[in-house]
From TrEMBL:
GO annotation terms (biological process): carbohydrate metabolic process
Matching CDD domains: AmyAc_Amylosucrase
Residue ranges occupied by any Glycosyl hydrolase family 13 catalytic domain in the UniProt entry: 98-524
Database matches in InterPro entries: Amylosucrase, GH, GH13_cat_dom, Glyco_hydro_b, O16G_dom_2
Species whose genome carries this gene: Marinomonas polaris DSM 16579
Gene3D superfamilies reported for this sequence: 1.10.1740.10, Glycosidases, Golgi alpha-mannosidase II, Oligo-1,6-glucosidase, Domain 2
A GO MF label: hydrolase activity, acting on glycosyl bonds
Protein name according to UniProt: Amylosucrase
Length: 641
């Protein structure tokens, strides 16, 4: 017999309401909560039942969960942002930056002093990289969390974080925090209890014998093969293997246990109490495990994330999720939706922009975005060129195959190109986690070093430097003009180069991602103010693009169309809002490219709707019928006037 979810949800909800303690809420607070619960309980129940319907104590866990919502409802939060727009993320005013607190400033208190810099740059969305208590030494950049409720002492206190949230909100800047919910560090109190023999907390993780671990390892992929082979770590004190997808000190949580879900929701609510507006769901593809599968992107992972979202809608509906799914493009898109993640990183576009610069061809970029760029209404991409992590070449091999590109060989070429091992490469990247079996790896480096600035300076070659800065201009010109929120990574706004100081630190030397995690100094900011220096030119072009974007509502247009201009070297797209059109044209090569065969025989004039257009990037009037050549590594933002 098929279960009537609506009926069962309503029945369960009514029973739970009768059991909950509302004594600490005012009548108004209770009314608000009950209304949210009436709207949100059925979606929550529908997602939890496939996960935990077989658990005899599900009703108990639901009661604990809802009571935690009530307790959360009564607690005070920092001053909230004034902008209450439901779809704020669709505005052209949005420009983000991701920062490490102690690399941009010294601590949370001193980061408040950087708010004027954010304002001057045009930032209204600040993603703070992990800042909670973590193991000393190597903590995977803070992603091994020992206590979700305690700020790392070197960064300050919970009060400092709340003060920062209030200060950001007063300036109209949203605060983003990481929700690291796939794993904890092995120093978390749950892990410590598990190590001491507490069977209840051992059920929070995956402990198993060698045979079971070997069977799982047959089908799961290795994420950090240079650090540890397989996905398990042996614990002699327990004579058991524990699941560690990433590092041995990061223990994967066992979400087949409903107590884990409830406990992690409570940690999530604490993060929200500190004043965040967006939660980035870290490593969300890995959260559900089943033997005989790759243990990534499983259907029940989506049930789990939708259940977290249902909790969010009941407890804190003004907060949204951002997905971090660095997986196959088809899988990335499955996490995006009103009932799952409102925002999502766009790793496909990031990787293929770099691929296009290396090959000087845009076929793979076009074909991939044509298939994967569209997402549901009222959801948004987070577009980025670089981030705190590495670059992985995650396109769909079915598309590259159709284009006659061997996926394995092409990825090997890109790795060699961007790590400077390919003759003629402009890049100065560093390999990350090279697999000793198949030679696969990813690439690290700052925007400026990967684009060629570092090598051009070393060669003292003005032409190479001009090309490098032009590549940065093209990348940012596409990133700021695409639908979504453009996200800068700290230091890339200043033209910072790779820094190899990490090699002198034993806790970081084996993690080449630290090459682009530089402590920013006054000298870096001063160099970015020098218009004669490469860093100054980079900083200025980024500032100007942000200024133009924020001044033109057309950059909030939801209507988007890829445009083919008849050349494999060009990339173009059009955005439309009422009678206004934005046409972006980028040349990904160092050569003049002619405009020859436009789509369906249309001219540029027909694409824009008139004979002339303004190039927003230089304020020049362009006669479209006579525009026959696109300059090397150039980008145009053409609008009708």
């Amino acid at each position: 017999m098929v279960m009537n979810f609506a009926f069962e949800a309503q029945k369960t909800q009514q029973r739970l309401l009768a059991e909950l303690d509302f004594s600490q809420l005012t009548s108004q607070q209770k009314a608000i909560f009950v209304k949210r619960l009436e709207n949100g309980f059925a979606p929550l129940f529908e997602q939890l039942f496939p996960l935990y319907g077989q658990c005899f104590d599900l009703h108990y866990h639901l009661k604990v969960l809802l009571q935690s919502f009530i307790d959360f409802h009564k607690k005070k939060r920092p001053a909230q942002i004034k902008d209450k727009s439901e779809f704020w993320f669709e505005s052209n005013q949005n420009v983000g930056i991701a920062v490490y607190v102690d690399l941009l400033a010294d601590d949370l208190s001193s980061l408040i002093d950087k708010i004027p810099y954010f304002e001057s740059l045009g930032i209204n969305y600040v993603h703070l990289m992990p800042l909670y208590l973590a193991p000393e030494g190597n903590s995977d950049g803070g992603y091994a969390i020992s206590d979700y409720r305690t700020v790392s002492p070197n960064l300050g206190t919970n009060k400092d974080l709340k003060d920062l949230a209030s200060a950001l909100h007063k300036k109209g800047i949203r605060m983003v925090l990481d929700f690291v919910f796939n794993h904890t560090s092995d120093e978390h109190r749950w892990a410590e209890a598990a190590k001491s023999g507490d069977q209840g907390f051992q059920g929070y993780y995956y402990f198993m014998g060698e045979q079971d671990a070997m069977e799982y390892n047959q089908t799961v992929r290795e994420i950090f093969p240079q650090i540890r082979r397989g996905s398990f770590t042996y614990l002699p004190e327990l004579d058991s293997h524990v699941w560690t997808t990433f590092n041995s000190f990061q223990w994967d949580l066992n979400y087949s246990n409903p107590a884990v879900f409830v406990a992690v929701v409570e940690e999530m609510l604490h993060l929200i109490l500190n004043g965040c507006d967006v939660l980035r769901l870290d490593a969300l593809a890995f959260v559900w495990k089943e033997k005989g599968t790759v243990c990534e992107n499983l259907p029940k992972a989506h049930n789990l994330i939708k259940a977290f979202k249902a909790c969010l809608d009941i407890a804190a509906p003004q907060v949204v999720f951002k997905s971090e799914a660095i997986v196959h493009p088809d899988e990335v898109n499955k996490y995006i939706g009103a009932d799952e993640c409102t925002l999502s990183y766009n790793p496909l576009m990031m990787a293929l922009l770099w691929e296009s610069l290396a090959t000087r061809q845009t076929n793979l970029l076009y074909q991939s975005l044509e298939r994967s760029f569209a997402i549901p209404e009222h959801t948004t991409w987070i577009n980025y060129i670089r981030c705190h992590d590495d670059i992985g070449w995650l396109w769909d091999d079915a598309i590259s195959d159709r284009l006659g590109i061997d996926g394995i060989g092409h990825r090997r070429f890109l790795n060699q190109f961007y790590t400077g091992q390919f003759e003629g490469s402009f890049a100065a990247g560093v390999p990350f986690q090279e697999n000793p079996v198949n030679g696969d790896c990813r690439v690290c480096g700052t925007l400026a070093s990967l684009a060629g600035v570092e090598n051009a300076i070393a060669a003292d070659d003005p032409l190479l430097l001009d090309h490098a800065i032009s590549r940065i201009r093209v990348l940012n010109g596409i990133n700021f003009a695409m639908p979504g929120i453009p996200l800068l990574y700290q230091g890339d706004d200043l033209g910072v180069l790779n820094n190899d100081d990490y090699l002198n630190d034993s806790t970081k030397a084996e993690d080449s991602r630290w090459v682009h995690r530089k402590k920013l100094t006054n000298a870096d900011f001063a160099l970015a103010e020098d218009n004669g220096a490469p860093q100054g030119k980079i900083a200025q072009l980024i500032r100007e693009m942000i200024k133009i974007r924020k001044a033109n509502p057309l950059f909030a247009a939801q209507e988007f169309e890829l445009v083919s201009l008849g050349s494999e070297h060009l990339f173009a797209f059009r955005r439309q809002m009422d009678d206004k059109t934005l046409l972006v044209i980028a040349n990904m090569s160092e050569h003049l490219v002619p405009l020859e065969h436009l789509p369906l025989g249309k001219s540029l004039s027909e694409l824009i709707g008139q004979e002339t257009a303004i190039n927003l990037l230089n304020k020049e009037l362009v006669d479209l019928p006579s525009l026959s050549l696109i300059q090397p590594l150039d980008i145009l933002w053409l609008v009708n006037n």
